[in-house]
Amino acid sequence: MHHVPTTRLRAFAALPFLLALAAHLTVLGLTADRLPDPLATHFASDGRADGWTALAAFALLSSGLLLGLGAGWTALVRRAALWGAWLTAGAVGALMVLLVRDNLDATDPAQVVSPLANLTVAAGAGGIAALVGWALTRLVPQQETPSAVDAENVDTLPLGPSEVAGWSRATGSRPMTLAGAVLVAAAPVVALLGPWPVGLVVGAAGALVLVLSRLRVTVDRRGLTVRPALAPWPRVSVPLDEVASASAREIDALGEFGGWGYRVRAHRTGMVLRSGEALVVRREGGREFAVTVSDARTAAALLNTLAERRGRV
Fold first, then answer.
1. Which one has a higher pLDDT value, 142 or 156?
2. Hey, how many other C-beta atoms are within 10 angstroms of the C-beta on 111?
3. Which residues are CB-contacts of 114 (< 8 A; sequence separation ≥ 6)?
4. What's the confidence (pLDDT) of residue 163?
């Protein structure tokens, strides 16, 4: 069963970014005749300007940043994390407005100073917005969370003594793909408006999320292999001699693993791209490895058969 946010939840997640964008563009429109061109948009540790952006470009980049963050939160939000969307929108929107304020009536953008106190103000605005988001959570119906169910009984796959077989399936996550694309797109904006190393980190994180957003799951004579569909690394392997049993079951990404991607929990790890059907392998020693993929029952049956041939099941 898929745990899908309600339309109301998505609307509440998008709302703060639209409000922040509206406030930002309104401030820009009302003060455009009092702003230098270019604007001071990057500041050293002492608060003095050391980077500048044309006014029109700043309007486009800042709007794109808010819309990108809003799209990401809208796609990925869960009821319990709605406050995070409001926190992000409040803090980023406040920083944008404060940056415009710092440039007001500046005759020389090189002399503009942005005090570190702006970060405190932005954090405060984000905190207040987070409280609003938390309050709105009560207006979102509590969705029934799929509970962890007992693993389905999966028998072996009938194979003759000399027969060989393999199974392979691609699996992906649209929210992770969107999140990765948003991070990659935001990287140059972050590098422009903040310290450039942060932009590199954001871009690298986005690229990694994109790589991990689509996986190839393979069961063959070597055991279970999970790797990115478009890259040979990183990969996770469970050799046949480590397989105690394999099963198929429904899992809840947020409830059981706390999110998406490569997840580590007590006595279990997983490559979790969504809630729903998953192949679950119990290793010798009791630890489990799960990967969300369709047709998991067939994969589990084949893995049991191949492991049985090695005398492990």
1. 156
2. 11
3. 40, 43, 47, 49, 98, 99, 102
4. 76
- Taking the C-alpha atoms of residue 308 and residue 310, their distance in angstroms, rounded to an integer, is 5
Given a cut of 90, whether residue 72 has pLDDT beyond it is no
Given strand 214-220, what is the order of strands in its sheet? 167-172, 214-220, 223-228, 236-239
What span, in angstroms and rounded, lies between the C-alpha atoms of 260 and 251? 12
Enter the DSSP assignment of 288: E
Which pLDDT score, from 0 to 100, does residue 195 have? 67
254 in Cβ contact with 275 (< 8 Å): yes
Cα-flanking dihedrals φ and ψ of residue 263, to 5°?
-120, 145
Q: What is the torsional sign of CA 68, 69, 72, 73?
A: negative
With tokens 């799960």, the residue in question is 290
Q: What is the pLDDT of residues 278-307, one digit of tens each?
A: 999 999 888 999 999 999 999 999 999 998
Residue 121, classed as helix, strand or coil, is helix
What pLDDT, on the 0 to 100 scale, is given for residue 69?
A: 86
User: Once rounded to an integer, what is the mean pLDDT over residues 230-256?
Assistant: 88
Residue 108 has pLDDT above 80, yes or no: yes
DSSP 177: H
Please state the pTM of the whole predicted model.
0.55
Q: How far is CA 113 from CA 99, 100, 158, 166, in A?
A: 10, 11, 73, 64
Cis previous bond, 175, omega within 30: no
Nearest 5°: the CA angle 285, 163, 236 is: 35
Query: How many alpha carbons fall within 13 Å on the CB side of residue 80?
Result: 8
Residue 264: pLDDT band (50, 70, 90) is: confident
Tokens matching residue 296: 């998991």
Q: Is the pLDDT of residue 235 over 80?
A: yes
Give dist(CA 310, CA 303) in Å, integer.
Answer: 11
Sign of CA dihedral 18, 21, 23, 25: negative
